[in-house]
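Hey, I was hoping to borrow your eyes for a little while. No rush at all, and the record is pasted right below.
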Amino acid sequence: MVNHASGAAPVTATERLGELDVLRGFALLGVLLANVLEAAYPPWLATEAQLAALPTSDLDSTVFFLEQWLVYGKANTIFATLFGIGFWVQLERLRARGGDFERIYVRRLSILLALGAFHAIFIWVWDILHLYALAGFALFFMRKLSARAFLVLGLLLAILGEPLISLMVDTVGLPDYAGPYFSDTAIVARQTASQAGDYLALLEIFTKITFFAWIGQGVIVGWALYALGRFLLGAFIARKGWIRRATELRKSYILTLLVALPVGLGGQYIVASVNTGAMNTPGDLEWVLTLLHEVSKPILSLAYGCALILVFHSAARPLVVLFGPVGRMALTNYVSQSFFIGYLLFGIGPGRALAGYAGTAHLAVQSLYFFAFQIVFSVVWLRLFNYGPLEYLWRWATYEQRPRLVRSSAAEAQPA
């Protein structure tokens, strides 16, 4: 259905960019692995002594190192950059139709903020939807800046935003009210509440962590700048048409990949080695490590993106197309991952409460199984319907009209 008066309508399957869906699906795999393994690691839901006592501790250490090296920070960088790309693509399409972009986009972000706040409070404390909504409002008010401003501000915020906020907090010397919540005693208390299936006790604990650490220590501001920087870079990429012109720019993609992959891998290898204790660094060089991390992280993410797009536009395309359906249902799949993580790590309802009792290797395998299920579910669902369940509701609320859910032709099922 199209609102002819405003020129606004949800994006149809034939209007989608297939590369973006593949990138989103790939990023969601990384987000799942990072969320599971980071949550099940000290100082959140397991103590170092518990993990060291597991018979798989050596393998677990290797898996965690690989996650730090290849996944952590890279998946959310791709995901956030795609948000910025999507922002600009939607802006251009609504302008072409004569749609009221401002009203539609503010409503869209407001809905996302409400959903993210609910998700963070009651389901998954590490939610990023509310954060994306907040950074999205900032991007909205910056939309009239030049492409060069997008690039410069995006790079500055993506690299320096979070470290500068951390430095400011340290300089001001805010009281560390969150510190006691990360002690071994507090971790065991969370495990005890989890194993007892005490949802309200866990809710109280994580609400306090959110208030004292996420908000009270200014972490939310640092991460909002982190996200905004990536949004701006994504919008810059979209303005340049680098996704739509991927086949035309194939040589540039190859050159970028050949440079970015070794640089990103090398920088992140050093960072992961230091963070996991495999390599030591003098205390007075900590700022160098931070800078290396913030620079090499988006560089490696860029390499991943170039590689996926090159494969998408090659004879090897079948290797990546299955990420596409997952990416088309990114909101549904992201939220469903939260329930899976809760099932895996907590003892609520049918939950297995494996935090502290299963190592990262086992949890990584379980996560891969679940992602395989998400692929199958997404493929089957999109053979029958035009949108994922949450995507459908989000579009309905955003455009104030009900889009057609049931697919009526094979063409509607395939992204452009």
